[in-house]
Amino acid sequence: MFLQKLHLKNFRNYAETTLEFSPEINVLLGQNAQGKTNLLESIYVLATARSHRTANDRELIRFNQSDAVIQGLVHRRADDVPLELNLGKRGKKARVNHLEQAKLSQYIGQLNVILFAPEDLSLVKGSPNGRRRFIDMEFGQIAPRYLHNLTAYRDVLKQRNRYLKLLSARKASDRVYLDVLSEQLAGFGGSIIAQRQDFLGELEKYAQELHLSITQGQETLSFEYESKLKNISGRSETELQQLMYQQLTEQAEKEIFQGTTLVGPHRDDLKFLINGKNVQIYGSQGQQRTTALSVKLAEIDVMKAQTGEYPLLLLDDVLSELDGQRQTHLLQTIQNKVQTFLTAPAMNDVAQNLIKEPKIFMIENGNIKETTAGGKTVLETVTFYPPVS
After folding, report:
1. Residue 34 marked in a binding site
2. In what order do the strands lie in the sheet with 91-96?
3. In what order do the strands lie in the sheet with 312-316?
4. 323 C-beta neighbours (distance < 10 Å), count
5. 3-state secondary structure of 255
6. How far apart are CA 115 and CA 208, in angstroms?
7. 231 annotated to bind ligand
8. Does the residue 362 lie in any domain?
9. How far from 58 is each of 39, 215, 240, 293, 365, CA to CA, in Å?
10. How many domains is the chain partitioned into structurally?
């Protein structure tokens, strides 16, 4: 899988432009606030129908414009698939092969991407919310059922929390309705936990191999899923649903008092262990970064195993955050395997000896030029082009 063309109209600081990419490595050069990350973000939004930087779609639309358009031509196996995402006041409209999709869940998964940014190096030592978001975003791209369960779970969770607050304030008294919401929440929540455990089991397998290689066989990486549900180990999806319903029922009085749901996948966490010890607590900064790198690179193989094709890899200024050994391992892992987009302030910041024949784009104030490694302009891409077809 690779992105052949990208057409942007009124996205962030881009008025209108069309780019053609290499199926291997594409280097985006430019100083801060010129549009490098905006370009990566547009690819991420095209794939996932959401930004990794903001929850407000209005921020994605160019100043003083009413809507934005992102179009891409994706090569998948033997076919070229046109994708289109429109962002406007009435929300998002998605098209695959020029056909509008009734639900975004039908659109997501047409193009798979993995984003690796400096903040991802804090995956290990960061907040539980960040680790849950990591699982949900990555697994949601490749498992439509998981995405459906997660969306439904969040909807029911909002309803249940709202009703718990009413019960807490004594503005409602119907416990039967609370029980109905608990049963619905447990149905979706038990499925999510079961699916997360399966996904993390496969991710762990690949991450272990990578981590052993990076550390020259000195460190063994393992995962531990931490749930607010008690005794989840070895349970089937149905058993997890029943267990969650049981524990929601047992904690009902406490939840009413606090006005919020205390049990479920929205409160779970992921623990990383090196040689059996918690990296979050006992690991050095180097071990934490190596763990994050192993996990992110493992996603590439998981997506390949799940979908049959490698995803795109977006590296947003991440090389400058890695030492020479980790840079080398990263670039050797992806070379001739994954279409990659990486940003850097200048070519000096890129490990040129490890990258073979990249396609280079210089970005300045939303204007893009294709250049050679020596800085010679090959093609100006600032002019207006017809949409991708």
Report:
1. yes
2. 14-20, 2-11, 68-76, 79-88, 91-96, 99-100
3. 113-116, 312-316, 340-344, 25-29, 359-364, 367-371, 377-380
4. 10
5. helix
6. 20
7. no
8. no
9. 16, 44, 39, 32, 20
10. 1
SS3 244: helix
Q: For residues 113 and 137, what is the distance between their CA atoms, to the nearest angstrom?
A: 10
- Placement of tokens 């031509």 in the chain: 73
Provide the percentage of residues in the chain whose pLDDT is more than 90: 68
32 in a known ligand binding site: yes
pLDDT at position 225 over 50: yes
Residue 220 marked as a ligand binder? no
Copy the structure tokens of residue 69: 């358009």
For residue range 267-285, list pLDDT tens digits in order.
999 999 999 999 999 999 8
- Which of these ranges, 49-58, 180-189, 264-273, has the smallest mean pLDDT? 49-58
Please name the amino acid found at residue 37. Answer: T
Residue 388 lies in a domain: no
Q: Tokens in use for 352?
A: 């040129």
Domain that holds residue 299: 124-308
290 labeled binding residue: no
- The answer to whether position 105 is within a domain reads no
Instruction: Kindly report the CATH number assigned to the domain that includes residue 183.
Output: 1.20.1050.90
Task: Give the single-character DSSP code of 49.
Answer: S
Contact 261, 157 (CB under 8 A): yes
User: Does 117 count as an annotated binding residue?
Assistant: no
In whole angstroms, give the CA distance from residue 358 to residue 378. Answer: 13
Residue 30 counted as an annotated binding residue: yes
CA distances for 320 relative to 137, 215, 343, 347, angstroms: 25, 20, 10, 12
Structure tokens at 146: 């998981």
In a domain, 35, yes or no: no
Spatial separation of the C-alpha atoms in residues 117 and 95, rounded to whole Å: 28
Residue 38 confidence (pLDDT) above 50: yes
Q: Name the 3-class secondary structure at 107.
A: helix
187 annotated ligand binder: no
